[in-house]
Design a protein that fits this description.
single chain, alpha/beta, Rossmann fold, DNA polymerase, domain 1, 5-stranded parallel β-sheet
Amino acid sequence: MDKQPDTSGANLGRLPAYHNGRFPRILLFDVDGTLINAVRRREYRGLVRGKLEQIFGTCGRLDQVDFAGKTDLAIYHEALECEGFTIEMVIKKVPDLEAGMAEVLASMAASGAVFELCTGVRELLNALAIDNRFITSLLTGNLAKLAEAKLRLAGIWEYFRCCGAFGDDHPERDHLPAIAAARFSQQLGEELRPDRFVIIGDTPRDISCARHFGARVLAVASGRHSVEDLQSLGPDAILPGLTDTGKVIELLESI
């Protein structure tokens, strides 16, 4: 499933400015519930259901699938396996899924806002963009082109134009940190230790995938899961959200 990463981001060019074996730290942000939230969630789900029916002839049990923290491939497979679709069959349809979901977002955007930024996100990204200790990237269950489309609509894609890992790289989220790490190690010309990576996300699966790889993890209770829910899973740090830029950066430096 591996593909060539987009390494056009200016962040990577700042590496020599602050390089001491611990920094720069690679920050791998989740998308949904961490950076952005859907404004019209019910409408979006309905249109996704329609696209699955168009592509596969059925949406299976999509309405019973919990999306939180899963890759798009895992979501679609879980919905469709009751209809006999294997993960390999879903993977083969990735180009159709990318095109179909792009159509969904374009249709929604024509009639109003589709996503809103979580509180504090733009302020945090602006601060990180001028801080040589950090490189911002993505680790998300979204298909790569869908992640880009969402963040373009939200107005923050320019902060993330460098190699990360996405939902079409592997069906299981636990494998995504290693994929992102391999891409960064290749791009930067050195083998990066797992603890050079910090995963920032709002679900138990963000914590799980960080632990699976050995990365640090900052959990944020900006989605469906409470501080108490996430704290019980032992993240390195936890915050109610990304609202306090100074506190977030302090934690990203220290954990």
